[in-house]
Every structure is written in structure tokens, then in C-alpha cells.
Design brief:
The protein has 313 residues and is α/β, with parallel strands linked by helices. The protein is 39% helix and 26% strand. The protein folds into 2 domains: 223 residues, P-loop containing nucleotide triphosphate hydrolases (Rossmann fold, 3-Layer(aba) Sandwich); 68 residues, Protein-tyrosine phosphatase receptor IA-2 ectodomain (Alpha-Beta Plaits), CATH 3.30.70.2470. The site of adenosine-5'-triphosphate has 12 residues, from α1.
């Protein structure tokens, strides 16, 4: 069964802002799923809907087979969400924080104590026990916050930008923690991030969002395959000439992604050398003036920018 199934989800805020524009995605049970997107893409809105804080305008959502419209309470009892602002109480000790959390979820005391010990040991938090929580670094506070949220043994853990603003070491510790959550507890993790490297090294599935809709979803392997696809960049003297070139190139390379960017075109390659020859031949044949053709090898960042930047389809 899918952990999360979303189809054609729309969210229009009261002020008329449409934050989600028919997004569809699937999260498999037990996987780490990363949602990538630039600011304003709709990531927080989506998390808020999936965690039942916000109501969708339309669309289908099921979480472990339960419909979000009719069974929100059941869904809520099986999930946990770690927001960017930590929910820990710095006046309480680490263990008091964890036991307090267990009370909120009405977990019997003995069971809560056992679970707390497992989580403290699993996440390497023992060495912080003797210090006051207020003295913890931002990274350790964030890890404690996640441990708190694991007290209720959620089936899905939502993490909104879990490593934002962290130094490299804290980020690595957080990555280890996420991998342990998946391997030791089998929890499905749904996270948002701005860091491509994080999404690539951690995730089973990555979904890139733009303007409230998914633009690419797949395994890091699929994304890498996408990366391996070279881009043919054809430069023209100006935008007008590029538009004329676009007509012919798009017709010739029908079925391929051809994008107009100001005074140049980009064409996704199948065989870059052959494509380069054919494009050059076509432009000469049609007497379309151009400034140059080159083969580009995009990085993951290039792909992300290309898929998410304004004005690019
Ligand atoms: N309560 C609200 N009322 C009206 N518009 C909103 C509200 N919350 C968010 N928006 C708008 O909806 C769009 C999507 O916002 P959202 O916060 O979901 O994006 P995001 O991808 O999480 O961005 P960020 O990475 O900056 O957190 C934005 O244009 C935002 O201004």
C-alpha cells in the first residue's frame, strides 16, 4: 500500500492565492521522500494539508489508504510533523521533554520509558543527558525535536527543512538520524529541502515542485539519468531570431523538450553528436542565422534550475 497518495490537489487560499495547482504524487511505505522546490513552490502548503492542518480546495488524498476528508483524525494519530521551529521546552531536561511528549500521546509510563531509552540510544543522545537543553546547539535541539516526535511511533514522519541553517557536521548527524529512522523503525519520511545534495544522497524518491505542481518525480537514479541527458544550446543573434529557430527546431525534434530562453534554445539530446550535426544542417538548410551550437552537460543544480526557474516550461 502507498503511504501517501495525492492526485490533482488544489489549494486556493482565501485571498485568492492558488498555492497548489493540481499536484499529484505517490510516497511508498518505508521510503525517504524528498520534496524540492524554490521558495513559494507550495511545499509548506502541501505538508500542512497532508498533516491535516489545512483543508484542500479539491483533489484526492489518502494516507495509508485513509481518505483525508473523512478520516483526518485517524490519519493524525499515525503521523508526526517536525516544523522548522522546534517544539522542545528548554526549561525541561531532555528526558522530561520526552516524557512530556509521551503524556500528550497518552502513552503508558513504562512503555514511554522503554521507548525513550531506545530513542536516546538509537540517536546518540546519551552524551547530552547531563547538560541543560538550553545549552544544546541548534543541530542537537533539532535532533531532540525529532526524537520527541518519534515517541508516538508514527508511521509517517514529516520534516520541514530539517537541516536548514546547519553546519556540515550537524547536517551529517541529521542524515544519519534519518537513515536510522527508516532502517530501525521502518518509518516513512517525507521531507522538504532546498539542498539538492541532501535529496540526492538520502532519498529513495525525489519530487521537484514548481508553481504548486510536480515537474519531475523519481528515484535519484532516474534523476541522474535525466542529468546524463546532454543539452544542445543553440544561440541566435536576438530573441526574434530565436523564435524563428524554435519553430523549425521544435518541428524537427518533435517529441523532445525544446525550450526558448531569450536568445537561445535548449534541446534535450538523445545522441548529442548526431543532434548537433542535424540541428546545424537544418539551420543552414533553412537559411536561419544562428550564432553557435554547443553541447552542455547539466549538473543536478542545472536540472533543478531549468525545471523550476521562471518562464521556463
Ligand atoms: N496563508 C496563506 N495565505 C495566502 N497565501 C499563502 C498563505 N500561505 C502561503 N501562501 C502563498 O502560497 C504560495 C506557496 O507558499 P508555500 O509556503 O506553500 O511555499 P514553499 O514552497 O513552502 O515556500 P518556502 O520554501 O519559502 O517555505 C506562496 O505564494 C505563498 O505566498
Amino acid at each position: 500500500m502507498d503511504a501517501i497518495y495525492v492526485e490533482n490537489l488544489v489549494k486556493k487560499y482565501q485571498n485568492g492565492m492558488q498555492a497548489l495547482n493540481g499536484v499529484s504524487l505517490t510516497v511508498k511505505e518505508g521510503e525517504i521522500f524528498s520534496l524540492l522546490g524554490e521558495n513559494g513552490a507550495g511545499k509548506s502548503t502541501l505538508i500542512n494539508i497532508l498533516t491535516t492542518y489545512l483543508r484542500p480546495t479539491s483533489g484526492t488524498i489518502s494516507v495509508f489508504g485513509k481518505d483525508i476528508h473523512n478520516e483526518a483524525a485517524v490519519i493524525r494519530s499515525g503521523i508526526a510533523c517536525v516544523a522548522q521551529r522546534t517544539s522542545i521546552d528548554t526549561h525541561l531536561s531532555l528526558t522530561e521533554n520526552m516524557m512530556f511528549q509521551s503524556k500528550l500521546y497518552k502513552i503508558p509510563k513504562t512503555e514511554a520509558k522503554d521507548r525513550m531509552e531506545i530513542l536516546i540510544s538509537c540517536f546518540g543522545l546519551e552524551r547530552y543527558l547531563k547538560y541543560p537543553v538550553s545549552s544544546y546547539s541548534g543541530g542537537v535541539k533539532r535532533r531532540l525535536d525529532i526524537a520527541l516526535n518519534m515517541m508516538s511511533n508514527p508511521k509517517i514522519l514529516f520534516l520541514d527543512e530539517p537541516t536548514v541553517g546547519m553546519d556540515v557536521q550537524s547536517r551529517m548527524a541529521m542524515w544519519e538520524m534519518m537513515k536510522k529512522i527508516r532502517s530501525d523503525f521502518g518509518t516513512t519520511i517525507f521531507l522538504t529541502t532546498h539542498y539538492l545534495e541532501e535529496a540526492e544522497s538520502l532519498s529513495d524518491t525525489i519530487c521537484i515542485m514548481k508553481d504548486g505542481k510536480e515537474v519531475l518525480q523519481g528515484t535519484p537514479h532516474t534523476l541522474r539519468q535525466y542529468l546524463q541527458q546532454n543539452i544542445l544550446k543553440i544561440t541566435f543573434a536576438d530573441k526574434g531570431a530565436a523564435k524563428i529557430g524554435l519553430k523549425q527546431i521544435a518541428k524537427f525534434f518533435s517529441g523532445r523538450k525544446v525550450v526558448l530562453h531569450e536568445e537561445h534554445l535548449s534541446v534535450c539530446c538523445e545522441n548529442s553528436q548526431v543532434d548537433l550535426k542535424q540541428a546545424g544542417h537544418l539551420l543552414f538548410e533553412q537559411n536561419i542565422a544562428f550564432m553557435g551550437i554547443e553541447i552542455l552537460q547539466p549538473s543536478l543544480e542545472d536540472v533543478f534550475i531549468r525545471l523550476t526557474s521562471r518562464g521556463v516550461s
